[in-house]
Design goal:
The chain has about 270 residues and is mainly alpha-helical. It has one domain: TorD-like (Orthogonal Bundle), CATH 1.10.3480.10. Helix content is about 70%, strand content about 0%. It has 11 helices and no strands.
């Protein structure tokens, strides 16, 4: 796992620990599978991308962080995700990733790494910390009052509680911040991909896989996809920097593609959603 993973776990480690305890209390044992099939490799790839996006929206970025993301060890699992998409969706997602990588090349062209990173930090502050930017909270986009910690925030917290998890106390953002919601999806993506191994003699069974997939589907459909695309549109309209434009386009496209993947996974368990 690359360096960003450490930052991601600061967002989601309590979810993973609580989830582990929840599964163990329910008699569910998870261990590293000796023969990973394509579906669970997807979980790792999806987790890598969700983790990356969570960190991008959570804090300032540097050239090194983004460069680490594009290392082969991360791109390889992502390829296994993209190849499961219909050709048109796969092409669009690859284009988003390539455009983001190219935007970083343009951002640092003719500049020292430290200077380019400073430009990114300034743009992060402009977008997420000033009145001229955006407000990356579900309550702002879906709440009637357009204020923080409105009813949508309560609903997000209720969703977390319904499956026995809570946000890390060290996480400074509220539960409906875009970075926290993406971190939630990252943690469950890793779990569904059996990325974390626990001491156990049993493998995760079909019912347990279904639970992990269904939770992700429901959260994506009931929460993230109801407001994150609008946030991404606002970022694209307000950013002055190609990198954050690329992040917004990638986030919007990936969420749409991930819903497709989750629906396809649920079909494998013959669970009717619609």
């Amino acid at each position: 796992m690359y360096a960003l993973g450490v930052c991601f776990f600061s967002v989601a480690i309590s979810w993973i620990n609580t989830m582990k305890n929840l599964l163990e209390r329910g008699g569910i044992d998870i261990k590293k599978q000796e023969e990973e099939n394509q579906q669970w490799i997807q979980g790792k790839g999806r987790g890598i991308l969700y983790s990356f996006l969570s960190q991008i929206f959570r804090d300032e970025v540097s050239w090194q962080k983004v460069s680490d993301f594009f290392q082969e060890e991360n791109i390889k699992p992502l390829k296994s995700v993209i190849t499961q998409l219909p050709p048109e969706k796969a092409q669009h997602l690859w284009e988003c990733l390539n455009n983001l990588r190219e935007s970083m090349g343009g951002a640092f062209k003719g500049k020292e790494e430290e200077s380019g990173s400073l430009d990114l930090r300034r743009e992060f502050a402009y977008l997420f910390l000033t009145p001229h930017g955006v407000y990356p909270f579900e309550s702002i986009y879906l709440g009637k009052t357009k204020l923080l910690m409105d009813k949508p925030w309560e609903e997000v917290r209720a969703f977390y509680r319904s499956i026995g998890i809570k946000k890390d106390k060290k996480e400074m953002h509220p539960e409906d911040h875009i970075a926290v919601e993406l971190g939630f999806m990252a943690s469950f993506s890793y779990l569904s991909g059996d990325f974390l191994s626990y001491e156990s003699e049993e493998k995760i069974d079909e019912e347990e896989k279904e639970f992990l997939i269904q939770v992700q589907h429901d959260f994506l459909e009931q929460h993230l996809l109801k407001w994150a695309p609008g946030l991404c549109d606002d970022i694209m309209a307000k950013t002055r920097y190609p990198f954050y434009y690329g992040v917004a386009v990638l986030t919007k496209r990936f969420l749409e593609c991930d819903l497709f993947l989750l629906k396809e996974s649920i079909k494998m368990f013959t669970v009717k959603i619609d």
